[in-house]
Design brief:
By secondary structure, the protein is an alpha/beta fold. The chain has one domain (2-213): Vaccinia Virus protein VP39 (Rossmann fold, 3-Layer(aba) Sandwich), CATH 3.40.50.150. Helices cover 35% and strands 24% of the residues. Strands 1, 2, 3, 4, 5, 6, 7, 8 and 9 form a 9-stranded mixed beta sheet that branches. It is globular. The structure holds S-adenosylmethionine. The site of S-adenosylmethionine (SAM) has 17 residues, from helix 3 and strand 2.
Length: 214
């Protein structure tokens, strides 16, 4: 039994599952590029929902964990070690997932240290990277394509403000509403409501926004 669980299960926070469960229907094209993919939680969920995922990450350490997960689960995903911000992409895509690097404040339930170690200058730096990554993703997106932005943070600088800056600058972006009773709606995005999962001990807090290039 222990061996079977080890081979067939990937234990993840319920919030991770909820985010993917609520956004995957927006993607019309099942060929998807996950541009910050490792250690693979969301890529693996999407692949199991029938997507053909191209996974990118710049960290070899994180990719090693991703590969361990894939080997254990006997799943194949094309992983490429690349710096998303530096790589020149010639192809365009209809489906992009950007689970951007962030402060991870939304994981405070499991990692209480994040709340005391938080450094405001670091959050500003994250915001800069998040905006650069969103702008690069938008460039790579076909008209009518969907880009989903996710961070495991509730800090306004990394969530609402980021999307606000993007839609101020890029008038060809439409934000879509998500059908969910497990998230709290704010302008331009949604936060997972950990109280939705209070019977199982709560969840991490993710922010998610669904962008269409029009
Ligand atoms: C929030 S984690 C992704 C978690 C993953 N999506 C999951 O569900 O398991 C952010 C990832 O972005 C990667 N990353 C940061 N900067 C990057 C860059 N410039 N290019 C590609 N990957 C990057 C980090 O190595 C890290 O693995």
């Amino acid at each position: 039994m222990e061996k079977k669980i080890n081979r067939e299960c990937f234990v993840q926070d319920i919030g991770n599952f909820e985010v993917i469960n609520s956004i995957h229907k927006f993607y019309k094209d099942k060929n998807l590029i996950d541009v910050c993919a490792a250690p693979g939680g969301k890529s693996i969920l999407l692949q199991s929902l029938g997507f053909n995922v191209l996974a990118i990450d710049k960290s070899q350490n994180q990719i090693n964990k991703f590969e361990e997960n894939l080997n254990r689960l006997n799943i194949k995903i094309n992983i490429q070690k690349l710096d998303f911000l530096k790589k020149k992409f010639t192809d365009k895509f209809n489906s992009i997932l950007l689970d951007a690097p962030c402060s991870a404040l939304g994981t405070f339930r499991r990692n209480p240290d994040v709340t005391v170690k938080i450094d405001p200058s670091q959050i500003k730096k994250h915001q800069k990277t998040q905006i650069q990554m969103l702008e690069k993703s938008l460039k790579m997106l076909n008209n009518g394509g969907f880009l989903v932005y996710i961070v495991c943070s509730f800090h306004p600088f990394e969530t609402i403000d980021v999307i606000d800056k993007i839609i101020q600058k890029h008038k060809n972006v439409k934000i879509h509403s998500i059908e969910t009773d497990k998230m709290i709606k704010r302008q331009n995005g949604y936060f997972i409501n950990p109280l939705s999962f209070k019977d199982i001990g709560g969840s991490d807090i993710f922010f998610v926004s669904v962008l269409e290039k029009i």
